[in-house]
Amino acid sequence: MSDVLSHSDNGVLVLRLNRPAKKNALTKAMYTALTEGLTQASADEAVRVVVISAEGADFCAGNDIADFAQDLPLFQDDSVDHDDMPVFRFLKAITFFDKPLIAAVQGQAVGVGVTLLLHCDLVVAADDLRLSLPFLKLGLVPEAGSTLLLPERIGYQRAFAWMALGEIVGAEDARQLGLINSVVTREGLDEAVQAMAHKLLRLSPSSLRHTKAFMRDPEKLWQVIRAEGAIFRRQLVSAEAQAAFMAFLSK
Ligand code: COA
């Protein structure tokens, strides 16, 4: 079975991370499946709303660390077109996605499992949500445009503290910070998201598209993502990152 399930019903496409045994850590194949889902949704008039959700207890434990280790030579090779790598193709697709995007999140969300939420228009969380941004602890830099989006959303001071001090933020705190629209029980998560999606289905697709275009600046965001990505790739070979990955992989 695929590690990303795709299911379309009545104008709502659900892309569901389906690698619960690995806490839905994102592999290259999963980034590619998500990119394809978003690209097809963008082109298909019948799709009006996209939901990103996840199977199992946790939303996403970030990028797959074994993939990081395996792709190190590619990340370091300046002759490679990094924009064409699965992770950057996904980040470009989500940055330029022009239809409403809802996230349904539960349990642990780590790294890109948090920063991708900043690209969603609505986020519904289960009350057991724990968000963490371990980039600095790993010797890396925040990615996916989060150095722009997070301070914009929650203010510089709070964003810096979160990124640098690596605290875990719970669902209710995230809601109060403005990162999440609503907090529901774990059992009620899918239903709450469906209800939200159905409210969006009642609106004009072109009104939604124009509104989203006025409220976001994807071109600027994409430039930030590329700039962060260039440093991120360099930091992957830092002593801190290498030690952290080795420790994780050999545990
Ligand atoms: N990449 C690859 N595998 C991962 C993973 C990741 N990012 N996160 C979790 N997994 C795997 C674990 O290796 C483990 O696999 P195994 O059962 O085959 O040994 C399984 O998922 C369960 O994870 P585990 O660490 O046992 O769960 P936990 O509840 O003790 O801890 C986390 C959960 C999220 C705190 C922990 O898994 C973690 O720190 N993951 C790495 C997060 C990270 O640094 N992501 C990259 C950010 S840039």
3D architecture notes:
With 251 residues, the protein is an alpha/beta fold. It has one domain: 2-enoyl-CoA Hydratase, Chain A, domain 1. It contains 12 helices and 9 strands. It has helices at residues 28-43, 65-70, 72-76, 86-95, 112-115, 146-154, 156-165, 171-177, 189-201, 205-215, 218-235, 239-249, and strands at residues 4-9, 12-17, 49-54, 101-105, 108-110, 122-126, 130-132, 169-170, 182-184. The strands form 2 sheets. Strands 1-2-3-4-6-9 form a 6-stranded mixed sheet, with helices on both faces. Strands 5-7-8 form a 3-stranded mixed sheet. A hairpin with a 2-residue loop joins strand 1 and strand 2. Helix 1 packs parallel to helix 4 and helix 6 packs across helix 11. The mean pLDDT is 96. Bound molecules: coenzyme A. Coenzyme A (COA) binds next to helix 2 and strand 5.
List key phrases describing it.
48% helix, 251 residues, 12 helices, alpha/beta, 2-enoyl-CoA Hydratase, Chain A, domain 1, 6-stranded mixed sheet, binds coenzyme A, 3-stranded mixed sheet
